[in-house]
Amino acid sequence: MSSHSPIQACGKSVQGAGRKKNDDRFLIAPITEEYLLIAVSDGMGGHPDGDKAAEIIINRLQTLDIRQGSEDLLLHNALQMADGVISAEVAANPGSAGMGATATTALLDGNMVYWAHIGDSRMYLVRQGRLCQITRDHTFIQGQIDAGHISQQEAINHPFAHVLEQCIGCIDTGVDHGSFAASPGDSILVCSDGLFRNLAEDHLLGILDSGRPPAEQVERLLDFSEENAPIDDATVIVACI
């Protein structure tokens, strides 16, 4: 578990039952006195070196230099560069073909939230008792939902629910990125799919809007997730502004 102040943030990752290794990685790091960097990366399970791909992404983000450009473009460019590193790794080691990972990352300064994203990890905002999903899943199923072919409920247990259309290591249309103004009392959740696939949004909101410290929220989220379906690795970061 890791934490940061004055923005209160905590994160934790748990290995799924029966998994030989945890392919998830996360980061909570102050990069200046003003900015806190948070990130979750989920290595592609069942593919070679998924955990290594996640580590490449986290390591690249740790080198972020806020002086080199606008905040959301810095995150966007860092993920693009990580994609290049993974592609070069696969070219040099063909046995790693298929290697990749999701990435959802944000820079927080108390006034703004800058974010970048690819894959099916997620970022949520909790504000004034409402839960809003900020990122869009880059999955086959999300495309079917957007086209109106299936409902959100039908997607939950769909056999192709985990099929990614993009990841770091297989970028197609590019990295999503953006920003929004933060308000006092906001909570930010960044998590891998091992969490949100096991908890309904009303359960997420009930914990995130509870007023409990971030460390306690993280533990409760992971406890509920493990009770429901502890097969997949699950990683959570909660940041309270």
Features:
single chain, about 240 residues, alpha+beta, Phosphatase 2c, domain 1, globular
Structure description:
This protein has 7 helices and 11 strands. With 241 residues, it is of the alpha+beta class. Helices cover 30% and strands 27% of the residues. The protein has a 6-stranded antiparallel beta sheet with strand order 1-2-11-10-7-8. The chain has a 5-stranded antiparallel beta sheet with strand order 3-4-5-6-9, covered by helices on one side. Helix 1 (50-61) runs antiparallel to helix 2 (71-92). It has a single domain, classed as 4-Layer Sandwich (Phosphatase 2c, domain 1). The model has no long low-confidence stretch (mean pLDDT 88).
Quick overview:
With about 240 residues, this protein is of the alpha+beta class.
CATH superfamily: PPM-type phosphatase domain
> Can you count the helices?
7
Number of domains: 1
Name given to the CATH architecture: 4-Layer Sandwich
Main beta sheet strand tally, sense and closure:
6 strands, antiparallel
| Poorly predicted runs of 5 or more residues | none
Q: The CATH topology, please?
A: Phosphatase 2c, domain 1
Alpha-carbon Rg, integer? 17 Å
Average pLDDT level:
88
Q: What structural category arises from helix and sheet content?
A: alpha+beta
The rounded distance between the terminal residues' Cα atoms is: 19 Å
**Number of beta strands:** 11
Topology order in helix (H) and strand (E) letters: EEEEHHEEEEHHEEHHHE
